[in-house]
Amino acid sequence: MSLSMYTASVPVFRQILGSLSAILEKAESHADLKKIEPDALLKARLFPDMFPLLRQVQVAADFAKGTVARLGGVEVPRYEDTEADFAGLQARIAKTLAFIDSVPREAIEDGATREITVGSGDKQRQFNGGQTYLMHYSLPHFYFHATTAYDILRHNGVEIGKKDFVGSF
């Protein structure tokens, strides 16, 4: 049985981005309830050399849209990284979900054998097929940033758990 590129990507991105959206709602409510400045959470990081929450969410969304675009053979949409609050992050997630839903399933399936190039210059990486790109590069990066966003919020006292991260499918 062959791997469905669509099934291994779009539903996974939808599930975790949906969970991330719900977690951000809980974080915003937590900040309001505890009288915490939202920036304290949005700019929080696990360690000084790591991205803050805002950037973790942006990068997770970027991996979702970039992966689906590359697998689908369409141009990767560019998002300005201007989000400065929870509403902005929610809008970015919503925009990302709308984009990944717009790419035809057949085009994504065709991406299994499509050569994919990411980055530029010294950071350029080439993959001899979309399946390798998805399974060994894109999904691990996506999960890393989504998990780190969760971890930042959990570390800062937002009452979330594994069920919040996993969400529903």
Automatic annotation (TrEMBL):
Pfam families: DUF1993. SUPFAM superfamilies: DinB/YfiT-like putative metalloenzymes. It comes from the Bacteria. InterPro entries: DinB/YfiT-like (IPR034660), DUF1993 (IPR018531). PANTHER family: BLL2446 PROTEIN, DUF1993 DOMAIN-CONTAINING PROTEIN. This is DUF1993 family protein. It comes from Massilia aerilata. The lineage of its organism: Bacteria, Pseudomonadati, Pseudomonadota, Betaproteobacteria, Burkholderiales.
